[in-house]
Recover the amino acids of this structure.
């Protein structure tokens, strides 16, 4: 059968290997496997959320409140905005897809850093739009600006702050200066999936969604419950923008786009900021161990404002081969070979997981 | 800001009113509200599923196994097909969206019955395709075939068997005769969301996905966990088709498109067919009460092969006004006025809910 042309440029996405797959493929015992590959929160989620979800489990037959009133009000309170500035997605992923389907098409282009969140490109390709990337792997505002000025057909720009999968983060004041030079018809997506981490580590990286959307009508801010809130498996994220933009994006949202249990989980998670703060604090104290480890072992890393760290190898070592060796011993990490980088992205684990990582790393 | 042209033809979807909204808007006590509007399974889901989900709640931080190995194997076993014939979606809704984005575009058209599942049209509009509907509200194969022959640009046809929101169902042998006359480049979506109900009530309506896809390379069968399995709130459905088609649709699936708890729920739900059978049997014994009630009260209904029934009024009564009166007393039903029909769609409730419905109906 013939399909729409856009499918010709689409590949089937291969997610990071789940624990179940490593059990099946390598015969490693499930209890011996540590997954440090998907930037899940190794500390789980708030116990209040677990309790609430267990209580809600008898309502799985019922569709969620599709207005998502309580969750939107919670986010509006937290960020001091109106609930009309908020859209809920099945992960912030889904809002990336809405933004692209709203603006990108086969006659225009989108712009992003060379190595950034893979879904920008994947959803971009679904629209048939042209994908433009900077020469630099990490975010370089000068390159982004120059390319923007040279390509009049760019309609969406992605800034991942901090950046997944590399971990670096721009200063907010520099982001603002950049945004001032972007035309109001160009949608800029500021992806704050890891903002809870960046703003904790360095105030200069902190983005206030309210200030951001008040200053810039053309900016869509994204947040998620998948990282600091520890709800990656529940697929719930949010977009914040001016009311007119949020209304337009809602046209692409289908009813019941998150589950009844995800809605409950997110509502309760928002109320336990103490869990978030503790989990972010422990993340950075554990991250120091990785920084020390890399220095001691003579290789490099990218300073990270997230819950993962990117280790960089010189030509004497191959990240792919290291990843493979770790995998056989039950440690799942993310090799960035596919991005043209001789690097590994490693999620910062719990103290015990990190102990084990260092022990095993030394043996390979 | 200017958006892609397709957005001009999109409206924001208004889902059936959730219980929470009726509490907020009408001040009715939550415990007095009965929702018979969204075809949720009023008997909940299997207790085994609730137990399994509670046990899995501590894993909400972890993304699901994106290969969905266990669920696909479960479905493959059930239908005696290969797991390569299966794609999993966030509700069968999402697979409708994949099918449309794979085949429909602004240069072609899609065909459906006049009154059928609203998402066919909504997702269709997102692609800019032309939407064609038969003159008859219910499925009429002669009309569908005639329109198909007259419009050479039709690339997707939807058959909802049985049909939501009206409840009628075609005989499988007639569907097969129809499919034989459709070109192999036209994708036919056979939506079996309520097949567990139809096949229980009447063997002649039963569709065997294996036989269907073996006979017809261009047919995509859809099933869901939202109805008979009682997991509407968990957003999990499946598509079954030949391997080449399923591979193409997978290009449009993004990673982690269902939640960790939805995956677990669906895997366990499949294993409790006894729950499904009991729940379907009770549905039809309760449906008889509605049939008797309408006969006694001098109005009509459409014979239903689903978990809901459509009541038809003559010009002396207005379905919208009846729906509004019921709502104020805490009974939520679906008015089909928006479809140009003076009818109400009512989900068959539990015996107690139905008692209450009849009692309140008599008072309005």
């Amino acid at each position: 059968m013939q399909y729409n042309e856009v499918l010709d440029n689409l590949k089937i996405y291969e997610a990071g290997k789940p624990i179940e797959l490593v059990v099946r493929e390598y015969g490693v015992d499930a209890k011996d496997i540590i997954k440090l590959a998907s930037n899940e929160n190794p500390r789980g989620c708030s116990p209040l959320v677990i309790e609430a979800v267990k209580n809600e489990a008898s309502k799985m037959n019922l569709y969620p409140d599709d207005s998502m009133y309580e969750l939107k009000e919670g986010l509006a309170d937290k960020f001091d905005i109106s609930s009309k500035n908020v859209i809920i997605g099945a992960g912030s992923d889904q809002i990336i897809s809405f933004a692209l389907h709203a603006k990108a098409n086969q006659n225009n282009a989108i712009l992003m850093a060379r190595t950034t969140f893979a879904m920008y490109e994947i959803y971009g390709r679904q629209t048939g739009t042209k994908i433009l990337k900077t020469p630099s792997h990490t975010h370089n505002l000068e390159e982004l600006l120059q390319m923007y000025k040279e390509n009049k057909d760019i309609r969406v720009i992605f800034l991942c702050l901090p950046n997944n999968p590399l971990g670096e983060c721009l200063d907010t004041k520099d982001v603002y200066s950049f945004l001032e030079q972007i035309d109001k018809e160009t949608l800029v997506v500021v992806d704050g999936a890891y903002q809870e981490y960046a703003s904790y580590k360095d105030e200069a990286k902190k983005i206030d969604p309210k200030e951001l959307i008040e200053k810039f009508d053309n900016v869509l801010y994204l947040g998620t419950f998948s990282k600091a809130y520890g709800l990656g498996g529940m697929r719930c994220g949010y977009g914040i923008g001016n009311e007119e933009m949020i209304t337009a994006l809602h046209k692409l949202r289908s009813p019941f786009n998150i589950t009844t249990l995800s809605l409950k989980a997110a509502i309760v998670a928002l109320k336990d900021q103490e869990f978030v703060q503790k989990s972010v604090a422990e993340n950075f104290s554990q991250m120091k161990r990785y920084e020390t480890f890399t220095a001691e072992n003579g290789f490099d890393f990218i300073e990270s404002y997230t819950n993962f760290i990117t280790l960089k190898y010189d030509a004497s070592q191959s990240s792919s081969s290291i990843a493979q060796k770790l995998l056989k011993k039950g440690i799942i990490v993310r090799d960035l070979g596919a991005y043209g980088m001789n690097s590994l992205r490693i999620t910062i684990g719990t103290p015990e997981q990190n102990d084990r990582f260092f022990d095993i790393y030394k043996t390979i």
Remarks:
- DSSP finds 14 helices and 13 strands in chain B.
